[in-house]
Amino acid sequence: MKRKHHRWKWTVYALIPTVIIILPLYFIAIAGFQSVAEIFHKPPHLFPPNPTLAYYRDAFVTLSLYLKNSVIIALGVLCVTLLVALPSAFALAKFHFTLKRPASLILAFTQVLPATAVIIPLFLIFNRIGLINNYLGVIFGISVFTIPFATIVLNAYIQAIPTGLMEAALIDGAGFLRIFLSIILPLASPAIATASILTLILAWGDFIFALSFLKERTLQPMSIGLYNFIGQYGVQWNKLLAGSMIFAVFPLVVALLAGKAIVAGLTAGAFKE
Amino acid sequence: MKGTKVAYFFLLPALLYVLLFGLYPLLYNVSLSLRDVTFITYIQGTARFVGLGNYRELFANPIFQRTFSNTLLFTGLSILFQFTIGFLLALLFNRSFPLKGVLQSLIMVPWVLPIIVSGSFFRWFFSDNGMLNGFLLAFRLIERPIPWITSGHLPIFSVTMANIWLGIPFNFVLLYTGLQGIPEELLESAEIDGATGWQKVLFIITPLLRPVILATLTLGCIFTVKVFDLVWIITQGGPGDVSHLFSTLSYSLAFNKLHFGKASAVLIVMVLVVALLTALLNLFQREV
Known about the structure:
The structure holds two protein chains of two kinds.
Chain A: H1 2-31, H2 36-39, H3 54-94, H4 100-112, H5 115-128, H6 135-158, H7 163-171, H8 176-187, H9 189-205, H10 208-213, H11 222-231, H12 237-257, H13 259-269
Chain B: H1 4-33, H2 39-44, H3 53-60, H4 62-93, H5 100-107, H6 109-112, H7 115-126, H8 131-138, H9 154-180, H10 184-192, H11 197-208, H12 210-225, H13 229-234, H14 246-255, H15 260-287
Helix pairs in contact in B: 1-15, 4-9, 4-12, 7-9, 9-12, 12-15, 14-15
C-alpha cells in the first residue's frame, strides 16, 4: 500500500508540466464558448462565464466546405503514400541489391528537406501542367514527405517478418507479387496502421502546400479556411478558435487512442518537429 | 533475399517520386538562384543569367542580414529550451507510475495539433489586447500592453517562445526512447554506491545517451532552421520584415514579390546553413 502511494507521487509531479503544456489547448477550447467581449476580458476568464454553443455551430457551418476538402486531401495523400511506400519498403527490407544504400539515403534526405525548398520549383512546374488549383497538386506535394517517412516506418517493421515464410512460398511456386500481396501486406498490417495514422495527421495539418497551390476558395482545406479568417480585418477570434478546435478534434482523438503508435512511428521516422 | 530485378521493380515508384518531386525541384532552385527569374521573365522565358548577382544583392540587404541573425537566434534559443525541457521531462517519465500512458499522450498534443491551430492561438495570445498582456496587466506586472508581435525587437522572441512549446514533444519522445535503452541494473548499482539522482544523470545517463542526444540535436537543428508555417501564421515575417526566418523571407520574395530567383537564393543559403550546422554537430560527435 505504501509503495503504491509512493508511485502516485510521481503522477502528481508529471501532471504539473503536462497541464502547463496542454494549457493552450484548454484556452482554445473554452474560447469557442465565449463572446468576443468575454475572451478579451481582463484578466482572461479561466472558465467560460456564459458558455454557449452558438460560435461552435457558426464556425462549423461556415467552415464545413473546407472540412470536406481537408478530408479529400488527407485521404488522397494516404492513397498515394501507401501505394508508393509499401512496395519500396518491401524492396528495402527484404532484398539485397547494389543501390540499396544510396536509395535509402536519398529517401532519408528527402524526408528532412524543407518544404519551402521544393515549393517554388513545384509551383512553377505545376503551374505549367495544370496542377495549381487542383487537389492533385497539393496531394503530390505533401506526399513528397510522407512517402519517405512511411517507407522508413514500414521498412523497420517488414524487416522483422521472417524471411523463411517468403522462401517457403517461393518454393511452392508463388511469385514475388503474390508474396507481397498475400504474405507481407497482411503481416505488416500493424505497421501499415501506424504509417497511415501518421500520414493522415501530417496531411491533415498541412499548411504550406495548400497555401501555395490552392488559390480557389472552393478547393481549400480547413487550414487555409482558418488562415483566411485571420487575415480579415476585425478577426472574430472566438469563432476562429472554435473552428480551430473543430479542426483539431481528429488528430487529438487519434493521439489519445493511438498515442503509442505515434511515439513508435515518430521515433522510427523522426519526421516532423 | 536475392532477386535484384524484382527489388528495383518494387523500389522504382518511390525512387522516381522523390527524385522527380523532391530532388529535382531542390536542384532547380540552384538554377533559379543564378538567374533573374520573376514571374514575367519566367513566363516569357527571358530570365537572364546573373551569376551570383542574387546572392550579392541579398548579403548587401539589411533585411536579409536581419533574417540571417533571426534564424540563428531562433534556432539556438529554440533548441536550447526544447532540448532542456524535453530532457527533464524524459527523466521524469523514466519510471513507472499510474496514468503514465495518458500523460505521455497529452504531452504529444503540441506535435499533433495542426500548425494553423497552434499558430492562431499564439497570434491571439501575443496580440496587443491578447491573453498574455491580459494576464500581465491584470496582475499589474506591466502598465501598458507590450507589443509582443506588433513592433520593436520582440516579435522574433515571441515566435521563438511559441516554437519552443511546439518542439517539446519531439525532444521528449526521442530522449525518452533513448533512456529506455539504459539497463536498469546500471542505475541501481550506482544507487547502491550512493550516487544521487543528479550524479546518475551527469555521470551515467548523459554519457550513455550521447548518440541519442546528438541525433536529437542534429534533427532539431534541421527542423528548426527550416520552420515556416508557425512564423508565417503569427507574424508573416513582419511587422516591417523584422521577424523573418530564411523560409518566410524566401516565401514572401517568391509569392508576394514574385521574384523567384532571389527567393531561391535565400533557400540555397538556408540549405547550406543546415548542412554546416549538421556537419559541425557530427564533427563534435567524432571528437568526443
